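Lecture 7, part 2: worked example. A protein chain together with pyridoxal-5'-phosphate.
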Amino acid sequence: MKVSALDLKRQYDGIREEINKAVLEVIASQSFVLGPFVESFERDVANYCKTKHAIGVSSGTDALLLALMACGIKNGDEVITTPFTFFATAGSIARLGAIPVFVDIDPSTYNIDVHKIARVINKKTKAILPVHLYGQCADMNAILEVAQAHGLKVIEDAAQAIGAVYKGNPAGTLGHIGCFSFYPTKNLGGYGDGGLMTTNDDHLAEFLKILRVHGSKPKYYHSYIGINGRLDAIQAAILSVKLKYLDGWSRKRGELAAYYSENLKGLPVRLPKIEPYNTHIFHQYVIATPQRDAMMKYLEQQGIETAIYYPVSLHLQKCFEYLGYKKGDLPESEKASNEVLALPVYPEITQNELDYVIGHIRNFFSRQ
Ligand SMILES: Cc1ncc(COP(=O)(O)O)c(C=O)c1O
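Predicted complex, written out as structure tokens:
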């Protein structure tokens, strides 16, 4: 049997008519960039996230970049973040000439260890950029408390966490700006690149909207240097269709995760921990074991596709050598990068496939 890490064709099969109709409507309108389809989607997401503003952009990466720009992050500023995330989190900080300051993770959730943040704050620190990794929120109250005490901005990287809830609050709505990605593999994925920022601050919202169109308002009058960060109408129309299904898909992911956890209990693997105050949307279901590489190879031989998010902690990436980190500086993140493995978890996976994966993980350990 072959089990893919993700099969988006199955999702499309279920919503084909609606998606095709939505795409054709955009083509008929010949309005392709920003415009009414994007505005309608932005209203839908603002409602969904219970936030005042939602601003569609070209990708999750550009959402982060624009959020940092709108918060005034510039050359030499320090931004505290996690080293255990997709590159874009720290890449966006560095692209502005600012310095990513990495704080190690809590090994039970893989999110930034909030107890280690205060000790790296200094005069240059301007913001904290936590990531809600795999679909579970970082401990936002603790982050907001330390940020408030030091006058720092908080930008949430909620690229993997749309629909996740922290103490009753939707992911991406607790800090100054929340950043989302609609990369096709995300829980809410477009048919190309896309992203969005949420905020409850009117001034920030206005600034973000200006920055996403090269810093101009009105058109061709540039008070700021912005970027081309616009969202396409076709993506917005597709995402509007998919948004209606998102909660159902997230519930299903939760059920699949619970089934994995129930049936992998007792094996020498660390299972995902859900903090009692969090609703996890399981963008990824990630287990961890020192035997990760051998297990991944064995599963591959059985036709099971798994993935490593992420194999290299960002403080050890070649491009960040200039920051001066060395191996051993952030041990939990380094350990996680050697041990984590994401199993297939998507709403359309079949019971047979799920049992096949579980059976072979069990086989792997019984052969030891
Ligand atoms: C945690 C995280 N941050 C940022 C991004 C960047 O998003 P995008 O690929 O839409 O630019 C991603 C996803 O790719 C992500 O997983």
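Residues 59-61, 85-86, 88-89, 131, 157, 159-160, 181, 183, 193, 195 surround pyridoxal-5'-phosphate (CB under 6 Å). The chain has two domains: 8-240, 246-366. Keep this in mind for problem set question 3.
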